[in-house]
Specification:
Thrombin, subunit H; Alpha-Beta Plaits; Chitinase A, domain 3; five-stranded antiparallel sheet; alpha+beta; 3 domains; globular
Length: about 230
């Protein structure tokens, strides 16, 4: 009998999401290319999530729990378990001058950041701009096809998988007696991306792995080698 996913398990899974006939998201590069949504910045590989913790859409999360490894499965997701119903109050009229103050010349179809919210421009007329802050898939029935590639259950295995996902260039962390020890060697790049990934690892390990009580991060730094004096 194939292994089934339980709530709290970490899983790697591949998927394709459709709204009607349109593919809007996928882990398959080939599918993305056929759908015309390929982005070379995306990895297009199975993703890691904690089942039952709503790290993906609620309807998809519910479908993952109880699924078997290696079995292709389909899930039909209503708006309330997807991107929500459309809300008329999120369609607004804003003065064209407000956009011009920000150096933006809005045109219909433009997608922009509006005070931290994603908005699409619907029309520009009479000095007013109609913008829609609803998610573009709000109110739509979604169809997902997905397959569980791997189930990860042990605390040590979960922390290792999480580190490989978020900090792939670092050595695997040690785990014992509820404590994770992550060693960051001197040669590792410690830029802003590293800081964000490190904090995500700490937060998710404490939140998603019940056995983890403490996370210790040891960062090593060394003085740059001195350049020889020119003569």
């Amino acid at each position: 009998m194939a292994e089934k996913v339980s709530a709290g398990d970490f899983v790697r899974f591949e998927y394709t999401g459709r709204a009607g006939e349109r593919v809007f998201d996928t882990t398959s590069a080939e599918t993305a290319k056929k759908a015309g949504i390929f982005d070379e910045k995306n990895a297009y590989s199975p993703v890691l999530v904690a089942a039952g913790r709503e790290q993906v859409l609620k309807g998809l999360d519910e479908a993952i729990v109880g699924s078997e490894v290696g079995v292709e499965k389909k899930a039909s997701i209503p708006p309330e378990k997807g991107f929500g119903q459309r809300r008329p109050e999120l369609v607004r009229l804003i003065s064209l001058g407000e956009f011009r103050k920000r150096g933006i010349d809005p045109v219909p179809g433009m997608v922009l950041d509006l005070d931290g919210a994603r908005a699409s421009v619907q029309s520009v007329s009479g000095g007013r701009v109609k913008v829609d802050l609803n998610h573009e898939l709000a109110g739509q029935q979604l169809e997902y096809s997905f397959k569980i590639i791997e189930i990860i259950t042990g605390a040590k295995e979960k922390t290792t998988a999480l580190a490989r996902e978020l900090l792939p260039k670092l050595p695997a962390p040690a785990f014992a007696d509820g404590k994770i020890t992550l060693v960051v060697p001197a040669e590792a790049a410690k830029d802003s991306d590293f800081i964000v990934s490190k904090m995500r690892f700490v937060q998710q390990a404490l939140l998603l792995v019940p056995e983890v009580k403490t996370v210790v991060v040891v960062e090593e730094y060394s003085k740059p080698a001195e350049k020889p004096e020119k003569r």
